[in-house]
Automatic annotation (TrEMBL):
PANTHER family per UniProt: PEPTIDYL-TRNA HYDROLASE (PTHR17224:SF1)
Active site: H22 (proton acceptor)
Principal subcellular localization: cytoplasm
Stored Pfam families: Pept_tRNA_hydro (PF01195)
Protein location: Cytoplasm
Group of enzyme by EC: hydrolase
Site (Discriminates between blocked and unblocked aminoacyl-tRNA): N12
Family named by the database record: Belongs to the PTH family.
Subunit structure, interactors included: Monomer.
Reactions it catalyzes: an N-acyl-L-alpha-aminoacyl-tRNA + H2O = an N-acyl-L-amino acid + a tRNA + H(+)
Record carries keyword tRNA-binding: yes
Record's protein name: Peptidyl-tRNA hydrolase
Amino acid sequence: MSETWLVIGLGNPGPTYAGNRHNVGAMVVDELATRTRSPLRSHKARAAAAQVRIGTGAGGVPGPSAVIAVPSSFMNESGGPVKALMGFFSVEPDRLVVVHDELDIPAGDVRLKLGGGEGGHNGLRSISKSLGTRDYLRVRVGIGRPPGRQDPADFVLKDFSPTERKELPFLLGDAADAVEMLVSHGLLDTQQKFHSA
């Protein structure tokens, strides 16, 4: 069995969607690619991916081996590429980390969990259906609820506001830190750090 982690950042493909709140998961994986100086390259599993060492372990040694990837399918078809990547790199569900936007978490907060429901998130629903399990790790990046009566579906497909964009580098940095700590130190320690913030 592989010791490799698979970190998936969810989003929709193409420049039209690149700045959308719904694409914040893909933005976090881009941040990890920048940190590891490993550009994402097209993979036959309908994704852009890179093999990296993520974070740092005890004594400053390079962290665990991981594949970071963004599906090149639309959000609601994320499951196919994720399952194909897991098969290609021999990754089990307990080493799958999915980074995604979360309406039910205040904007700017990062939370982590294992398993649970999909909360109406089409990307998560597609992954759970393709894998036949919900028992994979999630790094949930808070985007907050839409103002007034705006439809949540419209809200997530809009770009971050100018005010939010000023804070976005900090949010992406926190979420990338959470992924690094999760694969290096485990879920409980990472939850203690990020949930008490």
